[in-house]
Task: inverse folding
């Protein structure tokens, strides 16, 4: 059985938060608000129910999110829903969370200029340089993209831009 899918248009309610794991893998956290709108009795559009969810993305996608998106942007997002659980002061808690598979700006009220990333993110390079400066060995990155193919794409079946 697989996790339930979610896709829709949401608004970022905070700037994405980018961190790096101890192995050097990028992790981005985003907070999203999905709103529905309806017309009131006077015919004016008003906000109706809102669904808030925290999303997480990993690897190059995390770095691209942090470099491209900011608070207030309307985004199109696709991901898998899961339940995150924890314990605080002896009390068990849980909330819905989103594993972000794909996210990007909605072009309904904005424009965007798309740039293909090179696979080795600037944030990861800075992280590894800082670790090396501290005397740590180079970190093997499990999220690094495979060697460039003849066609210039990151994967053998990926067409070049």
Result:
């Amino acid at each position: 059985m697989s996790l339930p899918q979610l896709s829709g248009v949401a608004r970022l309610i905070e700037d994405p938060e980018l961190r790096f794991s101890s192995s050097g893998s990028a992790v981005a956290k985003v907070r999203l608000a999905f709103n529905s709108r309806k017309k009131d009795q006077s015919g004016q559009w008003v906000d109706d129910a809102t669904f808030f969810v925290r999303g997480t993305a990993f690897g190059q996608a995390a770095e691209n999110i942090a470099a491209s998106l900011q608070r207030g942007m309307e985004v199109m997002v696709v991901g898998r829903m899961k339940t995150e659980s924890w314990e605080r002061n002896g009390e068990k808690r849980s909330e819905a969370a989103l594993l972000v598979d794909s996210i990007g700006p909605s072009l309904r009220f904005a424009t965007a200029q798309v740039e293909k990333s090179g696979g080795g993110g600037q944030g990861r390079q800075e992280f590894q340089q800082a670790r090396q400066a501290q005397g740590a060995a180079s970190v093997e990155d499990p999220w690094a993209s495979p060697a460039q193919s003849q066609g210039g794409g990151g994967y053998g079946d990926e067409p070049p831009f």
Observations:
- The helical segments are 59-68, 122-133.
- The two ends are 35 Å apart (CA to CA).
- The chain has one domain: 5-133.
- The chain is about 15% helix and 45% strand.
